[in-house]
Write a structure and sequence with these properties.
Two copies of one chain form a homodimer. Chain A folds into two domains: about 20-85, Arc Repressor Mutant, subunit A; about 90-230, Up-down Bundle (Four Helix Bundle (Hemerythrin (Met), subunit A)), CATH 1.20.120.530. Chain A contains ten helices and three strands. Chain A has helices at about 5-10, 25-35, 50-55, 60-70, 90-115, 115-140, 145-160, 165-185, 190-205, 210-230, and strands spanning about 45, 75-80, 85. In chain A, a hairpin with a 3-residue loop joins β2 and β3. In chain A, α6 (about 115-140) runs antiparallel to α9. The longest helix of chain A has 24 residues, at about 90-115. The N and C termini of chain A lie far apart (about 60 Å). In chain A, about 35% of the residues are buried. Chains A and B meet through α4, α5 and α8 of A and α4, α5 and α8 of B. Chain A binds a DNA duplex (30 and 30 nucleotides) through α4.
DNA sequence: ATGCTGGCGACGGTCGACAATCTGCAGTCG
DNA sequence: CGACTGCAGATTGTCGACCGTCGCCAGCAT
């Protein structure tokens, strides 16, 4: 009160400020989301409310809310009176996801450039931090870590545009893309190549080269989608059809 | 079975195929959504689960699910242990919504043009149908009808791109935009002008003029956002701040 | 007079139980 | 022998009730 500083802050008690401020349903939702994204749940697998509830030793109500959240995030699909099951992605789903990502990322990048040199520099700095984490993950070698860092980079790009609604829409697409990637254990073409590709994006952004940046993002996503839709390395060049898993 | 035609279809019973296939929570959600969109609920108004439940003579469970859906659609905001309240839009919210709409609509338009002359023609036809409805609404004169028809036109544009995820993301933005428009009973600058502006979009689309189309969409949305954020006609030219309602 | 503390009312979060619905299989009729 | 009908099991949809938490306000101490 007296100096604009809370008494909690000056007495060093701020560390216990957050004592589990999450509802049960949110925790369940986040845990399940992570399991789906990391591919620990098979596509099409039925998730019975009762089973999850007694597995977690909670009532069905919070489980139900959690499942509903994930349905709205398009990670689960619900059938009336038949419960929910883990989403199954077709090749056209993947194209949709990456096309939508392209829409949001390109617009975000364009808006950052519109923001002037200062905004460009700030965004580039933030992206460099994400890129460092990505390169660390690449060196470490864990698939899940790499893909997560990859998507974090792109999320950072969208976040830098400062439009929370764009970021919200992107987070849904990001989760779906991660689920796709992690389900088919595709080795990234080359870890270093992945880092380089993202580095190119940062350079174009920092330089303010709009057209080059937009094309780089678009190409980057198109290539990624291609790898996901023709993964078996010898399955031929069938573009659209083919169900994954 | 025998000829690929269901016996239901050939016996003319298809009309009763859908007999109220909606869950209670979905009906509640849609009704509330409509009320919020049409501005029948004041911004910031508290919505107590108990009150709604006994008002509709149902249990709290389906009401709770409906409210959660609307929270995820960003039409309600939830505070822990304090229930939900109708969303309040600030001027920066409006800019966010219209910026995000611009991202999705421009990308959709671009993809339609990518689809070639056939796709352009189909999309233009669909949009002309929406434009007819809009002009009818304009002649009829009801504000709510006009704004709804306006958004339907843009939704048709996004739908024509054939990306369901893009369409889903757009529907959330569309609802928010409608809520903004209907809350402040802005008379559209001129009904005919509104129709003309959309007609220009169709022409550019049919002609396949990508750059002109993208610019037209962007300008169209920017102008609309400007009208929403400086509505009082004498409130000065303060761009960003200012809380609506 | 001002700030803290305790009680009070209200609301959401969670729970266990009942009812409606769907799926699969067995039984039966043509 | 095939197809329709009815039953059984399981799961979801819905309900009423309890408990913890939050915001407000009166009362008290300073």
């Amino acid at each position: 009160m007296t100096e604009g500083e809370s008494i909690v802050a000056v007495s060093g008690l701020s560390k216990l400020k957050t004592l589990e401020r999450k509802s049960t349903s949110d925790r369940i939702s986040e845990d399940l989301r992570q399991m789906i994204i990391e591919g620990q749940l098979r596509p099409g697998e039925q998730l019975a409310e009762t089973r999850i509830a007694e597995l977690l030793d909670v009532s069905r109500a919070p489980v139900r809310e959690a499942l509903q959240q994930l349905v709205q995030q398009k990670l689960l699909v619900a059938s009336r009176n038949r419960g929910v099951s883990v989403v199954t992605f077709t090749a056209s789903d993947i194209w949709e996801i990456y096309d939508a990502r392209c829409a949001i990322e390109c617009h975000a990048a364009s808006r950052i450039i519109d923001g002037g040199p200062g905004a460009r520099a700030r965004a580039a700095d933030a992206l460099r931090v994400s890129l460092d984490k990505l390169s660390v993950a690449v060196r470490h070698g864990a698939h899940r870590k790499i893909s997560a860092a990859d998507l974090d980079f792109h999320t950072a790009l969208v976040t830098a545009a400062g439009n929370s609604r764009l970021a919200d829409a992107y987070s849904i697409l990001s989760a779906q893309a991660l689920a796709c990637i992690n389900r088919l254990e595709i080795a990234v073409p080359s870890g270093d190549e992945l880092v380089d590709e993202h580095g190119v994006l940062i350079d174009a952004l920092a330089a303010g080269e709009r057209e080059a940046l937009l094309k780089a993002i678009s190409d980057h996503l198109t290539v990624a989608a291609s790898h996901l839709t023709a993964p078996q390395s010898q399955a031929g060049t069938n573009g659209k059809p083919g169900r994954l898993h």
